[in-house]
Structure formats: structure tokens, C-alpha cells
Amino acid sequence: MNDQRWSLVPRGGGSFELHNRQTGMCLDVAGRNGARGDNVLLWNCDGGADQRWSWEPWTPRRVEVRPAVVDPPPPAPAMQPIGGEELRALRRAIDEQGFSENKRTVLEQAARTHLFRVAQVKELLGLFAFSEDKLHALKLLAPRMVDGPNSFALYDAFSFSGDQEKAREILRRNGY
What we know:
- By secondary structure, this protein is α+β, with helices and mostly antiparallel strands.
- It folds into two domains: about 50 residues, no CATH class; about 90 residues.
- It is built from five helices and four strands, in the order ββββααααα.
- Strands 1-2 form a two-stranded antiparallel sheet. It has a two-stranded antiparallel sheet with strand order 3-4.
- Helix 1 runs antiparallel to helix 2 and helix 4 packs parallel to helix 5.
- It starts with 5 loop residues before the first strand and ends with a helix.
């Protein structure tokens, strides 16, 4: 965007004009005062002192840095798993669904906002008839478990050794 680009045009004595590349006009100090903080604008180039610019040496000011005194952060809220009444409502909502896909959808929605204990996960896995659905449910719930080291209790929710192995892999990927 040429309206934001400038050309430096030397004018002698270490000064220069700033020409806007789009308009060809000069950067001009409003009112010809030239004091720090004055407004600037675009104006026809006339060679005036209010259109001449120069570089000033700048030395950064030494600033003493003191370590900030910071209050310790408040303790993190305890991770609370889904409560009993909410779990019963979730079970009912899953049970009311006739198709596996709909049951999974209900569980997906609950898993977005709730945490679970291993025993609760096992209870919810029992609501699904097919291994594929149980494994899908475990994938959703494993990252949301508050007592993951107890996850070994979930293996017997799966009837077949192949499904148990898949469950172990899901749990392993989640750090259990």
C-alpha cells in the first residue's frame, strides 16, 4: 500500500523530506511550530522548515528493574467428576436413544463439559451393546477421567481379548 510508504529525499545539512509515495506530498508539521508532540499532516512540498526532518541520537534511559512482588496464585479448583444426579440423567438420556449413533452423540455432548471417575466410565460403557461403541465411548471419556490410575478396572467391560487390547492402547495413549 503506497499510502503508507515514504521516500526520504535529502535536502542538505543532514536533513531530508519525507515524501508520501502515493500522493507525492510531504510530511508537514501542522502550524509550522515544530515542537515535540505537534500534529503532522500531508502538504504540498514547499521546502519549508516544517517539512524538514533529521535524525537525533537516542540513548536509552537506564531503568532499574526490581523483581515484582506477586501474590501466589489461588489454588486450582478441585477437579470434580460428574455428580450422582447428573450421571443418572446422562444414563437416562443415553438409554432413551434407540440407535447407537444417537447414544454416542449424547455421550459426546456430556464429555465436553464433565469429568468422570473410572467407575462411572465403566457404568457408561455398559450402556453400549457393541464393542465398537464401547471403544468409541472409552476414547471420549479416557481424557476426562479424574482417577486414571484406576483404569485397569475398565478392561473387564470388554468381552473379547482383542477389544481389551484396544482399550489398553486407548488408555496408554491417555497416560494410564
